[in-house]
Design a protein that fits this description.
single chain; 389 residues; alpha+beta; Aminopeptidase; 12 helices; globular
Length: 389
Amino acid sequence: MSIEIVGFGLEDKKNIKKFAMFPWKHYKKDPHYVPRLTGELLGNKLLGMHGLLTDQHPYHEHAEVRHWLIYKSGKLVGRVSGAINQEYNKLHDIKLANFGFFECINDEDVSKALLDTVCNWAREKGMEVVRGPGAYSNITHEPYQCCLIDNFHDDPCLEMPYHHPYYASLYEKYGFKKAKDYFAIEMSKHHPYTEKETRLMGLVKKRYKLETRPLNMKNMKKEVHTIVRLYNESWLNNWGFLPIKESEGDALADTLMLIAVPELIRFAMIDGKEIAVVGFLPDLHEKFVRKKSLFGNSDIIRIARMYLGKKNIERYRFMFLGVEPEYRHTGADSLLSFEIRLNLDKVRPKAKRVEASLLLEDNHAIINLAQKRGMGHINKTYRVYDYKL
């Protein structure tokens, strides 16, 4: 049986479309897989989306990318991308390429051919390490930036990866080694609010003169620029970090306009300056799941399902938390998390689950705190792999 690999760039619209749509068939019989909105990848002018697989997306301002499709006996059986983010490499003083968008049948010859191809491409570019899987890469603010290791019977949460269970084995048989693990914590939505906790949060506000407020949907771009500033300042020393650029923040603002619940994204302020932010987002995967329907599963139909049913979404993702380093002693993060948990009960009473993700495996303070206080337990493990060339 012959194996053929086809390489191409963003300008090859025909193959880019095949690349984007391959998972729809690959996971046709898997009830847990939730396809990304096609507009997220290929763009959608009506919805104002700049697709990641188009040269209009801000990601390509500072990255070089390549894509491959693999055929076995004439049948499309897999895909992979290669990416080199020059800004990340400069910041971390590393010669790193990433492999991403990996999808493959359970065939070691096919997976080896895909990984050989991306590793050879990286070697030709002068890189020393290949890291993955991800979307294009494994930068902390990018979605789908790792490999699910366990708990494949649970549906993926918002922007979290899901794939066939054999993928990790294919990477490890090729020679990829663990670089870092992330955890998802399943939090108790009905964690009791004690009188002591309520009193303590009041004392925290008074002692440090903290004020809090919700997201202002009427000034979304300004609000997102504040979130980006807090993220860039508070995550600076984290593994896999790269600052979010203003153009990327503008794209994020467009997305948040669709999905944000203002009471579930809150800022803490001192003397009128935002010094911390915490955000919960509804798990849109509940509404974006494929359905057998006369209306089909186009982006418009799935977004319509989301708008009609967003108040009934049962799971929320504790997606981001950022505190300026000089204010980490104030308890602003605990205060904001406390207020959002209260708001979740008020504005989304049908919510049943909260997932906190992604948490670096060495973020012992947060992980231990959640477990010791009975607020949650590790529910899923995600892994990023490295391969030295």
